[in-house]
Amino acid sequence: MLIKRITNAVNALPSCTECDKHIDAIKTHSVQLLHETVKHQAKSAWNSTKDNFWQTWGWLKKQSLVGIIAARKGLEKLEEQTKQFSES
Fold first, then answer.
1. pLDDT digits (tens, 9 = 90+) for 31-44
2. What are the angstrom distances between the C-alpha of 37 and each of 43, 56, 67, 72?
């Protein structure tokens, strides 16, 4: 949409050979700036997504370790109670 607006505005200007060279340069530069902006925004979005993924992965890993530790402690307690029960 922005490229079309730039093109329409440029096409509305009076025509002369020297002006046309400058106008073409402006159009090219405007399109390049637009592409760079979109590329930068896409890269920022990707980095944000990547950071969120690794934060979530770290949290899940931590929760898994907490679960494993709790399960191990529970198993030790169960083994201890079973041993006490069998001794009595």
1. 888 888 888 888 88
2. 10, 28, 45, 52
